[in-house]
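Long-time lurker, finally posting.

We've been working with Histidine ammonia-lyase (Antiquaquibacter soli) and I want a structural starting point before designing mutants. I don't trust myself to interpret raw outputs, so I'm hoping someone here can both generate the structure tokens and explain anything notable. Sequence follows.
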Amino acid sequence: MQSVVVGVGPLSVEEVVAVARGGAPVELAPDAIDAMAASRSVIESLADDPQPHYGISTGFGALATKHIPLDRRMELQRSLVRSHAASSGPEVEGEVVRATMLLRLSTLATGRTGVRPLVATTYAAILNAGITPIVGEYGSLGCSGDLAPLAHLALAAMGEGDVRADGELVPAATALERAGIEPLVLREKEGLALINGTDGMLGMLCLALADLDRLLTTADLAAAASIEGLAGTDAVLAADLQALRPHPGQAVSAATMRRALDGSGAIASHRATGFTRVQDAYSLRCAPQVHGAARDTVDHARRVAAAELASAIDNPVVTLDGRVESNGNFHGAPVGYVLDFLAIAVADVASMSERRTDRFLDKSRNGGLTPFLAHDPGVDSGHMIAQYTQAGIVSELKRLAVPASVDSIPTSAMQEDHVSMGWSAARKLRRSLDGLTRVLAIEIMTAVRGIELRGERPAPITGALVEVVRRVIPPAGPDRYLAPDIAAAVELVATGAVLAPLTEKEPA
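Top reply, 14 upvotes:
Generated this for you. Predicted structure of Histidine ammonia-lyase:
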């Protein structure tokens, strides 16, 4: 597996995902080592300066006016990490912890935080050893950085707290010893530098962007299959009609749907004999507009992520000309806003998907199919309750779309009197993405059943989609235990396997 090189320059979203989710190894570039050594010399030159320097010779937050004598400054950094490793709740997913650790490493590598190169090489070694510190879900307000989550990472590097190694829950000291990694003994400024960043929320944003690239294409494919299964028309997807409203995402979604329906015998047949409706319902006709708006929201979020990935977030920072300056760059508002924005888009895409599923189940609206797509309506209920499952998820997604970033609770004796709640926005977005995955999976299994029951020749791509689904879900028939079918469809969507028909049949 190719290594991801961490240097003075920014990482890409794809590199973050490769390390966090794919386990790619990391290595530090020589320019990063040089930059860190240069800024460290600035910090060390201030160690015995009688003038106070935040995080070097003072306490933290509301205790910034407290002068710390020289002989207690290593204790200061150690105490900072221990006291701030105060998370609680369910264990945060390993991929999120790895992304957070990589992004903190990336900021250290800029040379703007004043840590020794040893700190960065230790973080890289922990990542490469597959050691994942345990972090609880609650503890970050998204301001002054993701303090508690980042403190748990620093605590593990010190050989304290608990970690997962090879899936096993073990003390950090044990895991480091097995991996041959010497625990860090933090010096001036280093504890502060390890906990002051937006790395947790940014890591979750990067992972979400990767997920949404897959899920929005899946939504396009699902909508195309639903149009075909519901005897709808593809005429509204025409490029010239879409160009009358030139949003980039709308054009991409419409093109994906056109390609998925290209060569559909079912649509050709209805084009010749007349469609069952003068106009399709909005959930079919307006899919490119809604999916496209979500795509454009993702593009905006990607631009924010790129700016954040190019940032050196710490307080104070060592400037390029050697000053040590306090700043407010740790505030998570830019990331928190787009995380909330994405949750809104996810809820809307899921809501439209559920409406398409519902049309399949209503005999008065499904173009001649059986009620609930049941084998023997009355005896059988078909997909009736699968739609209930969708509806419950969509209702939850609407609640999760309420922005976290509009809230703020002051902390640290009113020194930190406005916070971003960006970590909370990221956590709820992850739940939203899981919900969208499940909603789209149920639409796809319903659309495939509808296509089969209609009995008309599907397009090559939607026909291949039917085959992909039928490899893991038996064809329509008398009612059976439905939860395993839903679980199999969710797995197809979550892994991206459901997109094989699109990728295998690329346009010439």
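Before you design anything, note these points.
The chain has a mean pLDDT of 94.
The chain has two domains: 4-197, 204-311+339-504.
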